[in-house]
Amino acid sequence: MIPYSIDVTEASMFSFASNAVRNGHLQRSSARCFSDVAHKPLLNLHGLQARYANATYVAASKVGGLETVERELMGLYKSSQKSAAFAAFLENPMISRDEKTKYVASMDKLSPITRNLLITMAGNARLNELPKVATTFSQLMKAKRGEVEAQIISASELSAAELKEVKAAMQSQVPKGKTVIIEAVTDPSIVGGLQVQIGDQFLDLSVKSRIEEIARTPLS
């Protein structure tokens, strides 16, 4: 009976130890899953650019580097728009992956997260997508800050007081905790009034639209 009892005890201890290891593994896995969820972007975007932007967002969030990465990516985006040489470097398929990887790896003024993104994209021959990845990352950051982009189109430039009044009116229409960020654009062709684009909603209060409406209305 004793040997059997010993065997059972040893088996129980082994089972307990195995379960503890498994449970520990599960706990660590659960912790990792919870950690990933905690750092997941609030905006659900899809596509190639979004995959790079989402992965970079999670990595940057885990080390508290979101603002740094956003600033660096937008700096690279602006360079791609202003520098023909840099834009050509990103776009040129004749430059090998190794050459591009070596170049971006030498950009030691960038944070490790941003540099690793560039190295990965260069290795996948996707550096030409960098401007779109940068703007997609910016979208994720705006969602994090609760920013709602709105475009106000007017026939002539609005005064500061008028912009403030329009912003206040729009702010009252968005959910609590959100902040309206206005881009003011002038377009003389609308004659007068305003056109407002906020998210996927468009409101046309222009004189031009009223004139067109009158033109479509048959006279009795």
Automatic annotation (TrEMBL):
Keywords: ATP synthesis, Hydrogen ion transport, Ion transport, Membrane, Thylakoid, Transport
GO cellular component labels: membrane
Record-linked Pfam families: OSCP
Main subcellular localisation: membrane
Keyword Transferase part of the UniProt annotation: no
Molecular function per GO: proton-transporting ATP synthase activity, rotational mechanism
Subcellular location: Membrane
Domain of life: Eukaryota
Family to which the UniProt record says this protein belongs: Belongs to the ATPase delta chain family.
Protein name: ATP synthase subunit O, mitochondrial
Species whose genome carries this gene: Phaeodactylum tricornutum (strain CCAP 1055/1)
Organism lineage: Eukaryota, Sar, Stramenopiles, Ochrophyta, Bacillariophyta
